[in-house]
Specification:
Length: about 260
């Protein structure tokens, strides 16, 4: 015969858990002996182990109580159902583990395999890491409107711009200006450089941005423009030079001089 402490130890639970199972009617509470102690037999140990295994598997205690009273066939069917649920949860957790591993890797989080090479090319060109991270996050956000395959295709199309010295020069200049204050006098020159690049790439207006709803475009704009102190002022300067928007770039009438 076992004391409550020894019973709990054998079953891998606490004495407090045993008392709780008594209180909710899961485990019968034995009579106390002449010394005032509860004494448990082997069947109590077996029942407690079954309760603990079912509870550890996430089975609600009310359901555990039903299963403890169930016949062999009903119990076996319930166990098979629990096993299937656990297998599904394990598969889902494995998917989470893969995503966490990609998160640790950085660039490949939620993105196609091609993303690592694409973003590495930005780094090889000397683009500051903060700019690369904004670019990476914008592609992750793009998955809200495009499939992974479409993102890979759009990324490949934009990747061709990395062979254009003018485009790369703009990226480097933006990187150098990332901490400039809005009133920095150099902002006007940066706006001139970006506007000239857009003039030369008038056929490129941000890839899939034309298909996005306005709210999502604003989200993309915020991701880029609000990440740097002078971002919103740069947007104004670009509009003065004939270009509206950052994600969805459109020509606008130039403001009259003076």
């Amino acid at each position: 015969m076992l004391t409550i402490g020894r019973l709990a130890s054998y079953a891998g639970v606490t004495a407090r858990a045993v008392r709780h199972y008594h209180a909710v009617g899961l485990l019968p509470e034995p009579e106390r002996d002449h010394s005032g102690y509860r004494r448990y037999d082997a069947q109590a140990a077996v029942d407690l182990i079954r309760i603990r295994i079912l509870a550890d598997a996430g089975v609600p205690l009310a359901r555990v109580q039903e299963l403890m009273r169930a016949g062999e066939e009903e119990f076996a069917a319930a166990v098979a159902e629990i096993d299937a649920r656990l297998r599904a949860e394990i598969a889902e957790r494995e998917r989470h583990r893969e995503r966490i591993a990609r998160l640790a890797a950085g660039d490949s989080l939620a993105l196609p395999p091609e993303s690592a090479a694409y973003l590495d090319k930005w780094r090889e060109l000397g683009i500051p890491e903060r700019i690369v991270q904004i670019e990476r996050d914008s592609w992750i956000l793009t998955l809200a409107v495009l499939s992974r395959e479409e993102v890979a295709a759009a990324m490949a199309a934009k990747g061709h711009l990395l062979d254009d010295p003018e485009f790369v020069g703009v990226l480097r200049s933006i990187g150098e200006a990332i901490d400039w204050a809005p009133e920095d006098p150099r902002m006007a020159g940066l706006a001139d450089q970006i506007a000239a690049m857009l003039d030369h790439h008038a056929d490129w207006t941000g890839g899939s941005a034309g298909e996005m709803e306005a709210g999502l475009v604003e989200l993309f704009d915020s991701l880029a423009l609000d990440a740097v102190p002078g971002g919103r002022h740069l947007e104004v300067l670009l509009e003065e030079r004939g270009w509206s928007g950052w994600t969805r770039q459109r020509r606008v009438d130039r403001w009259p001089a003076g």
